Fold these 4 entries.
Entry 1:
Amino acid sequence: MNAPSLADLAAMLRRSRGFRHKADIGEVLAHLGPAAAESPDLGDDCAVLADGGGFLLFAIEGLVEDFVEALPWFAGYSAVVVNVSDIYAMGGRPLAVVDALWSAGAPTAGEVLSGIHAACAKYGVPMVGGHSNAQASRANLAVAILGRARRLLTSFDARPGDALLMAIDLRGAFQEPYPFWNASTSAPAERLRGDLEILPALSEAGLCRATKDISMAGAVGTTLMLAECSGVGATIDVDAIPRPPGVALERWLTTFPSYGFVLSLRPEVVAEVGARFASREIVWAVVGEVDDSRRLVLRRGPEEALLWDLSETGFIRPREAVHA
């Protein structure tokens, strides 16, 4: 079977569930009026409050209800993992989580909570409270997290001329039939924590300009969000994206890995940053470069295809913010 063209890949990504969920953010925020559209902080992985010599980080993640109903234990586990990744993507370290859980009965709630507790134990993050309702018609879950950073990484500081580096833990497998690459549940806790510690260490050493953790929008969609927040464009070589052997590119580009980050770096620090990931057996690669076009372009050899023109249409920002 022939690989899809870049134009077909771009169209597939724009139609994907992850892209549609992210595009909903702008439509929802538009209802908050001009203040939301013009907010300079819109689009980061965490909310930030200055706190003495550092920063408090706040994030929250909700999980789609079909996932919670089908895999309640893994949904609970994943809700902690994605929050922990948000904190580390901002150069921070997690302190505690709380949850809000709705279920049609206590057994489902118990499975979800068991997954939450398993992830909290593995990542060393206590669950300190929450809310539950076992009389709901369907299962729904949200988990919030508090963290702290000494030096902040944001989504707003990518600059034209930067190298785009992706680092993904490929030591896992798909949580079938969902687009979740699970490199966490069977991994040792000490290794998981050490792998994540790379991010705040990079921040505190001043080696990274901007970072986002790879989310439901996949590796390319996450890069698009980073570009939008920073007011830049980028070109991505899709064949350079770290990918497990035997996994089709079109599936991988819509995958949510349990450990995956996009970094915008000065070219002169790429080797040092890459060595830090390699020392932990995290696969990394330079996948493209940042430019001033405000367009995200996919590339494969001489072939190119436009994925998104941010100067014309916002992705996660309200439309009013695009031409501000």
Note: Residues 320-324 have pLDDT under 50 and may be disordered.
Entry 2:
Amino acid sequence: MKKVSVLMAVLIMASMILAACAPAAAPTAAPAAKYKIGILAPAVTHGWVAAVAYHAENRCKELADTVEYKLYTSSNAEEMTTQLDDLLTWGAQAIVAFPQWQGMEVPIQAAIDKGVTVVNFDIEIAANGVYRVSGDNKDMGIQGAKYIVDKIGKTGTVVMLEVPTSGSVSELRKAGFVETLAEIAPDMTVISYATKFTREDGLKDMADILTSNPQIDAVYSMDDETSIGALQAIKEANRTDIKVITGGGGMQEYFKMMPENTDIWIESALYSPAMVKDAVDMAVAILKGEKVDPVKIIPTTLVDRDNYTQFLDPNSPY
């Protein structure tokens, strides 16, 4: 019995010595802090705008390991400014903003001055230090002018549906269109009308235009939704003089109309709302300390009945 007791004592002492010599367990690493990113988008009055919020939120969800986000939608500049303040209070380190209205320059500049990274999507505003991801709005106008001239020649009457309330988007598309027509088809007559980026306004305004203009050869529309309304007005008026209508955005419904209208060329300058994913990625890269260009411009692609099948996407929300 004494031998057993001695052996037990030796074993216990040995295990205590081994335990003392064993390396201490490494402390559990704390989870890495996530970047706080706010998303500011207009309220859904347009399918393209709805898709912007959809793609921005989806991208943030894809980056869930590194990004914590809040998304707000607003109906005017005042509401968006309030939401911007809420994001700053929340502690947003970066904000991806789609400031569709005038008056957002001051609050965005104030956020930048506080050290917050702001990446504007689509809209160009006068704020120092703001980053931007956008399609090439001016080139959309340039390509629209070239497309119309290619289809109807260098003379005729073109109705330009501009949207002054959209700020730099309409201004740049108009400038590209007007400047290019003046260069390649100086004898073309251009009649300008103000409308909005909705099919309801496109229908209403185009109906008035058709009544007051007995001969129209082409319509330079800046947006697919507007164009769908305008096409409905043209059909209801039984007009056969119009040979071309442009658009912009990349709407699936509009793509599907292209082969159905063989008497009129329907064109869209692809301007995908999925570009907002690039804006979210830019914000994350900046927060990581990576060097990025302050402006990223995505080239224009034209879609019509000759190539529309390449751009059909059954999963697209727009």
Note: The two ends are 86 Å apart (CA to CA).
Entry 3:
Amino acid sequence: MEVIIKASYDEISKEAGRMVRKALLKKPNLVLGLATGSTPIGLYNELVCMHKEEGLDFSQVVTFNLDEYVGIPASHPESYHTFMERHLFSKVNVPTSNTHIPQNTTRNLEKFCEWYEQQIREVGGIDLQILGIGVNGHIGFNEPSSSLGSRTRIKTLAPSTLKVHTRDFGGDLDTVPKMAITMGVGTIMEAKQCLLLASGKSKAQAIARCVEGPITAEVPASALQMHPKAVILIDEEAASQLKRIDYYKWGYENKLRLEADSL
């Protein structure tokens, strides 16, 4: 696990954009796992700018979103279908046929989850999975107590998660969907690389437990400690509860020097 600490949210977003750009230039048909929520918006803005200003090409990219609420239509203003269209898909040249978001109103949800897993397998797996982290340590909608080997499935959302998401539903808890389709922790862990983004003091405890705590189903993000190529990209506030913060900074600075010397 590599921990990269930047000064601000803007710097996180720019660095994440550079990492996705590098992966896409290396593999034009990149299979990209995508996250929603406020954290990745800056990254998506960076990618849109790279597309418009540099011609970064998404025409061969295939995407899979982590999750979607159950029971609201794709056209709902707070659905993740709408979120992705608003922040990325409508602004870059990724073909609609190449984008995959869980279908939240399908009649047979269990069968759909099996189909979603099969679609990921058929394209050879996810190359780069973008992740956020919940205040309770969830990734995707894998709430605490989720199996670390879980696959795409239906998950009931925890009260702490529902409380956070009331901001998107007019502050009314009753209107927040109580269930979601989510990739499982096991599905996420099969991505060739994971990039977790976090910003702000509200995420500091979750980051500390993810990076330095025990590997436990109580903190699903802690499973990333076992991933061979996981990057935790955070700002100073999100890093504030890490015990080895000086080491992470020192390690990253030396990596940059090594890369500069090799040019």
Note: The mean pLDDT is 95.
Entry 4:
Amino acid sequence: MTTTYDPTDPTYFDQAALRSELHRVYDLCHGCRLCFNLCPSFPTMFGFVDQRDGDVGAMTPTEQDQVVDECYQCKLCYNKCPYVPPHEWALDFPRLMMRAHAVRQAEGLPLQERLTDQFLGRTDLLGTASSAGAAVVNVLTGTPGSLARRVMEKTVGIASERLLPPYARQRFSTWFRHRQSAAPTEMSTTAAADPDSSAVQGSVSVFPTCFVEYLDPGIGQDLVKVYEHNRVTCSMPEGTRCCGAPWLHQGNVKEFVKAASRNVAVLAREVRDGKDVVVAQPTCAYVLRTDYPLYLAHTPQARDAELVAAHTADPAEFLMGLHKAEGSALETSFPGRDAGNVPDQVTYHVACHLQAQQIGLKARDLLKLAGIKATLVQRCSGIDGTWGYRREHYQLARKVAAPLKREVEAAGNDVVCGDCHLANGSIEQETGRRPVHPIQLVARAYGIPEEER
């Protein structure tokens, strides 16, 4: 057996070594069962082993692979596992599942699966084209079960009944560049009116991610305005693209490393210019923080990847750090709250990939500062990257999301918010309520109006 999570290890892609490692880990998991209720992989695994009176070695390769297929990389088992590195058993279940996908990818996939992988992986190409033709694209793809969606399911493997997010007509980067060149920022206007408020409290580079860039630029717009309201200058890195998470979760190590190398080269320059990298999507932030250093560890960019990881922050995490840091201050006057622009209480979904970063509930704390009480819901949405969009996973993903639906509805609040655009789409499909990002609620509490679309 070969216990390795390093894709440059010569045994990483060896099929026999992988099978032995799956046996070892499944045996440990079967003896522990602490993660029995986290995702479908574990009940499936335990069921196969229990049918054979506890003999893990009797599992067939097909049964081993079913466990792999049902892992959607929520990462929560890693947080819960007592045997993660540096424990002598060095158990990292999510990374073992990614290794299994990488081995399968290297050995060649069926045509249909390759088409689905390419469609989901080329987010910038798809986003650029779809934003340019948003009016038509949104009509064609916006109705689950429509003829266009059934054709998509047959050709590129995206579940026809899955609710897809609409594309924005104006990309975030376009808005940002126009705003920078057309008028002074809110921060500079505020400073001119009140010289005592002119001291800059920080500088960030907003990594927009595919979700903000192509799908919901309003999140990025409100983020920039909230930061400037708190005297934090904002720039946008030139030359970054998708973080590469779709490639990684498919097991396409080559394409992921290309994406990581390109982004790290740009973001490291931003950090060396004195900026922190702020990422308004938990999946992408997790990738920058944990996956870039691992997959670039044996490249000339290893130190840059570590530098970027150390200076990457969630939007609320950065603001709460500002609030608590000596010599800085977060603006705690919320006129929009007093004017009734935000509710007294909201339901806040804690995304899996936010929990996986182990940074605490910073968005909840930020909402509390704004006078908004958050009812927490910590259930998986069943999307996790691109897993829940695939035709073959759709029904199981809906089953995974059922407890989330129940808890959101039981909370009974009119407004639902969440940091993850992917999870928010699942919440909308399951409950009919369209969540907002917490930073957008904070913007309204500050009295910052929403941009016209």
Note: Confidence is low (pLDDT under 50) at residues 188-195.
